[in-house]
Design goal:
Two copies of one chain form a homodimer. Chain A has 354 residues and is an alpha/beta fold. Chain A has eleven helices and 17 strands. In chain A, helix 6 (205-215) packs across helix 7 (217-224).
Chain lengths: 354, 354
Amino acid sequence: MNPNSYCVIMAGGIGNRFWPVSNRHCPKQFSDILHAGKSFIRQTYERIAQIFPNHRIFIVTGKEYEEITKKQIPEIPDENILKEPYVRNTATCIAYAAYKIHLLNPDAYMITLPSDHFICNDAAYLQDIKDGMEFVEKQGGLLTIGITPTRAETEYGYIQVKSKDNTRKISEVKTFTEKPNPELAQMFYDSDEFLWNAGIFIWRVRDIIHEFKTYMYDLHALFNTDCKLNTPGEAKFIQSVYGQCHNISIDVGIMEKSQQVYVLKGNFGWSDVGTWHAFHALCEKDDNNNTSNSEKVILNDTRDCIVNVPPRKNVIIQGVNNLIIAEKDHYLMICHRKDEEKIKQFEKLFRLKK
Amino acid sequence: MNPNSYCVIMAGGIGNRFWPVSNRHCPKQFSDILHAGKSFIRQTYERIAQIFPNHRIFIVTGKEYEEITKKQIPEIPDENILKEPYVRNTATCIAYAAYKIHLLNPDAYMITLPSDHFICNDAAYLQDIKDGMEFVEKQGGLLTIGITPTRAETEYGYIQVKSKDNTRKISEVKTFTEKPNPELAQMFYDSDEFLWNAGIFIWRVRDIIHEFKTYMYDLHALFNTDCKLNTPGEAKFIQSVYGQCHNISIDVGIMEKSQQVYVLKGNFGWSDVGTWHAFHALCEKDDNNNTSNSEKVILNDTRDCIVNVPPRKNVIIQGVNNLIIAEKDHYLMICHRKDEEKIKQFEKLFRLKK
């Protein structure tokens, strides 16, 4: 890889969709929901560490997750863990990393990755990243990685390509669309012009800063007024900047507006594992369309269930359908799949109860 | 109480209906399913100890439950714990206690109690027992305690009284019927002639031995051939006797046949808590007919469920109906109420799986 290239892993999630398996003490990125033997962020790190040295890997996460990050990824230097005082979405997170890296190396490139996605094929993924980086080195602009849809999913963002030429690996982007309704999702899926937005971005740092200056001037100004990045005053400075930032995604803040956006068609098998539904789609199912993470789970006369329990737990499920059954520590959730949207409220419910 | 009277607590249950809350290591009688703060057998003991001294209280249980019995009821002398080598139903259990007590005191009376029933009103219960004992002292015969039915329950045995005079506290018995089908149960309930069989028996020991001799001669012969009861050879003797006994209840073996059977109409509020269904009937319900044993259980948009979990467990149940959710140690069961009959197989399923 280009010695000016840096990898930024975004790990700002606060973990309520997979409660109680993930929770605010251990959000999804630090959890091993798929029982792969390591957390999502550890997998993400090990994957990318094949092409980036540790000192050029940064992790942006909530300041309360500093310890768990160090514990799970001790290889990363402490100063490469960027601690966010508040949850402020991806535009702020990326700006923090970009301005910081820019001060370290004005010729830097950065690739930004989510920390909590599932990747099937690591080699294809790394090749796509290398290809994307090469493209950006030559061409400039903002590159994102898109995934060819395999269903009319309503939980993902979509990227429309300009060219209908499906053989091209990299295309200009026409539009970004956040989670569509089912009819729109079906149209997107049928049209062959749309890709899923995998939230992976590649650009020259200088270029993204130019875009912040153009489309999010307030944010740009915050990071450039009396800047204390890479000094002992960084934490206090960031506390102040984050206090004044809006909660806005990079897609809405920049990608939808920028005039030079490209998408690389990724080919590595991907899921954001953003819902139990996506988790179910990803996992191996038994003959009755149940997925369970443990051999100690017995399912009798039971269909379409998702079971995620600690490895030592013996569970028997008899005569039920369409349930999500998840347990961690002292928390057990039994939720009908039609009510999955409500799960993100559950942790709060228990906090209020105390 | 008559100084010749003895109390025999039958604790031979092997605990599969309430699995995993009770299990073969800790059957229902040793469990605190109702979260009363003490096990069923401890409650039974404390109730009866108000009218019997410890040396005249006997407990018959599986030999594997000797330790848990001693732990839960340390007041009882060791020699008063009668250890059964095999499960052989109530006729054998009662014969063991009867022949043993008869050798200790040929003028003995005995009252036999199940160890795992729920009693609402202890004072009324003890008064009924005293009244029953007084009756037997005067009249002889076999006395059982019956409960006025409050519904057409199919899970209980029924006792038909000879006299239709409902004002009489003690009546002669016409028939015993094991668990009836729903139509029969409804007829019994409507007829006013039937009582539920609470499994509580009072008689002079000499009389029940006479009945064994008459109706179960094989069993009588086993206990009287080279008898080693109350000697160091008792355990070996019992091992041999139990090895040759049939599995038969006292109701079928004696009560249905004997010519001198009476029933006392109990008035103390009773449930055998023999099924989750009976448990549900007994417990306080919320507005949606759910019963839960813990304040740490949140039920949202959920109806007709039974939840029984450890006290520290936080549970949320969302959008489901008619489930039994029970947890103990490393075991979790989620069972549709229509499948309650299958629960007794579950412990075995896990044993087979290992």
